Amino acid sequence: MIARTTTICVTTLVAILAVTAFGIALGEYPLAVRQLPELLFGGGTRLDRHIFLDLRLPRAVIGCLAGACLAMAGALTQTISRNPLATPDFIGVTAGASAGAVAVIVFGGGSYAVTGTLTALGIPAAALIGGLLAAGAVYGLSWRNGVDGYRLILIGVGAAAVLTAITSWLLVVASINNAAQAVVWLAGSLNSRTWDQALPLTVLAVVLLPFSVLLPRVLRVTQLGDDVATALGVRVQATRLGSLGLAVGLTAAAVAAAGPVAFVALVVPQIMLRLTRGSRPPLLASALGGALLVQSADLIGRSLFAWEIPVGLVTAVLGAPYLIWLLVRRK
C-alpha cells in the first residue's frame, strides 16, 4: 500500500506542476511554458516578469495552497469522526470563517491593513477567529462523555445555518460596493489575487501542513475504536481536539485567501482513499489532490467559457453530484 500511495502522490504532484504551468501561461497575454523557469529567476522582459511574478504566480500559489489546506482539513475531520460527511463545510467551520471574513469586508472595506477595533485584525485573522469560535461551539455542544461523529455533523449543520444567516445579515446592512465584493468572495474565487493574500496563506500552510502530516500514526490507532485506542495509550479526545484545531486553522487560512471553495474538503479525501485503497483518507495524498482539483477547476473556469467562472462554482458543480451519491449510497 505504501508503494501505491507513493506512486499516486508522485503522479498527482506531476499533474499539479503541469496544470499550474499551463494555467500561468494561459491568458490574454500568453506566456510560453518553456520560459517560465527563466522568468522565475529574473530573466525575460520586464512586462513578462510583471505578468508572471505579480499577476499569475500569486494566483497559482493561492490555488495550490488553498486546495491543499481544504483537502487536508477534510481528511482530518473525516478521520477523527470516522464519517465521510464530517468536513469543515458541514460542521460549521467554513461558515464561521466566512462570517468573520465577511465582517471585515463589510466594516473595513476588504483591506488587509485597515484600522479599527474589528478590522485591525485583517481578513486572515478574522477568518481564523470565526472558524475557531464556530468549531469550539460545535465541539462543546457535541460533547456527551465524548464526541460522536453523527452528533458532530448534526450540530455542525445547525451551527452552519445560523452562521450563514449572520453572513446574509451582514450583506444586507453593507454598502453596495462592499456587499458586491463580499458576494464575489463568498463564491470562492482566485481572480485578482495578489501576494497580499498569498503570503499569509503561505505562512500558515508552512506551519500547519507539516504538523498535520505527522499525525497518521496516532490517527491510524483511533480507527480501531475509542476503547482500543485508549487501551493502547492514545488520548483519544485530546487527539481529536488537536486534529480539529489543525483542521480549523487550515480551513481558515484557505477561506481567508480564496473564499469558501466548496466541496474540496468533502470530495478529495474520499477519492484519494479509494485510489490508495487504505483504511482512512491519506493526508499527504489528499493535500496534493486538493491542490490539483482547485488548480484544474480554476483552469476550467478561465478557459472553457467566454467569461471567467469563479473556482468555487466549478468545484460545486463537480462536488454536488458526489455528495448526492454518497448520501444515497449510505442511506
Structure description:
By secondary structure, this protein is an all-alpha fold. It has one domain (2-330): Orthogonal Bundle (ABC transporter involved in vitamin B12 uptake, BtuC). Helices cover 75% and strands 0% of the residues. It is built from 14 helices and no strands. Helix 8 runs antiparallel to helix 11 and helix 13 (283-303) packs across helix 14 (311-330). The longest helix has 36 residues, at 46-81. The radius of gyration is 20 Å and the shape is globular. The chain starts with a helix and ends with a helix.
Give the SSE map.
Layout: H1 2-25, H2 36-40, H3 46-81, H4 93-108, H5 122-142, H6 149-173, H7 176-186, H8 195-213, H9 216-222, H10 226-231, H11 236-258, H12 264-276, H13 283-303, H14 311-330
